[in-house]
Amino acid sequence: MKEHQNKIKITVENLYDDRKLELTANRFADLNDWIDIFKTILIHQTFAHDSVKELFEPENSEEFCRNEY
Q1: Sign of the CA dihedral 52, 57, 23, 34?
Q2: Beta-strand (E) ranges in 1-69?
Q3: Structural domain boundaries of the chain?
Q4: What is each CA distance from 14 to 9, 18, 43, 46, in whole angstroms?
Q5: How far apart, in whole angstroms, are the C-alpha atoms of residue 24 and residue 20?
């Protein structure tokens, strides 16, 4: 039972075609872990690998953080 105390369960269901994705992450996961989780979800939802890669790995890192204060 204690092994589940530090876990987060994420479920993504597509009710249209009964597709389901279940992910389990450590509740202390860092930002890179969460980026991998979101990449997995987007690809599961049929976004192209190249589009997902472009979203998370922009060519110009200044553009990626332009709204940061």
Answers
A1: negative
A2: 7-14, 19-26
A3: 2-64
A4: 17, 6, 13, 11
A5: 13
